[in-house]
């Protein structure tokens, strides 16, 4: 009898994260953050809920990793601080405007208010890599970079929450100018 060449039983795991992340963003976009339960995300992804919980201990941890994936590395290129700041702000504004991303951001932040473990996940997995990159490229101390991140992301999410739409390009340009003044 020839040796078996089949892989391990069960669903293939290649691209599982990408499938789950896309399902999570679709669920948030279609149902809102509260409606995008682990059950619904699992169903949308075509996996068992236990598959999700084996990889992520909570919806907040899943959404945080989803956001890390959706955002990717920040474009911190430019001839100087003004160009770097402008490209980074336009980039994050566009990302927050993508379907599900703004809702995922806002929802996970609300959950983190009363969940210290989720705050730690958000801080270490999502905020710290961007903070460190910005500190390095801008030559600014941690407290100033954290303030800039708070102002930018808070402003963009506030606008999304108040209007249901991403911030208009003209307002993003004003936000860029405001942050440039803070960093001068």
Q: What's the gyration radius in Å?
A: 19 Å
Structural class, by secondary structure, is mainly alpha
Strand percent estimate: under 5%
Q: Give the overall silhouette.
A: globular
**Oligomeric status:** single chain
- Helical content class: over 70%
Instruction: Name the helix and strand elements from N-terminus to C-terminus, one letter apiece.
Output: HHHHHHHHH
What average pLDDT do the residues reach?
91
Tally of DSSP helical segments: 9
Helix/strand layout:
Elements: H1 16-35, H2 38-45, H3 49-55, H4 59-71, H5 81-96, H6 101-113, H7 116-138, H8 142-163, H9 169-183
Helix pairs in contact: 1-2, 1-4, 1-6, 4-6, 4-7, 5-8, 5-9, 6-7, 7-8, 8-9
Description:
- With 184 residues, the chain is mainly α.
- Helices cover 74% and strands 0% of the residues.
- It is built from 9 helices and no strands.
- The protein has helices spanning 16-35, 38-45, 49-55, 59-71, 81-96, 101-113, 116-138, 142-163, 169-183.
- Helix 8 runs antiparallel to helix 9.
- It is globular, with a radius of gyration of 19 Å.
- The N and C termini lie far apart (75 Å).
- Residues 1-10 have low confidence and may be disordered.
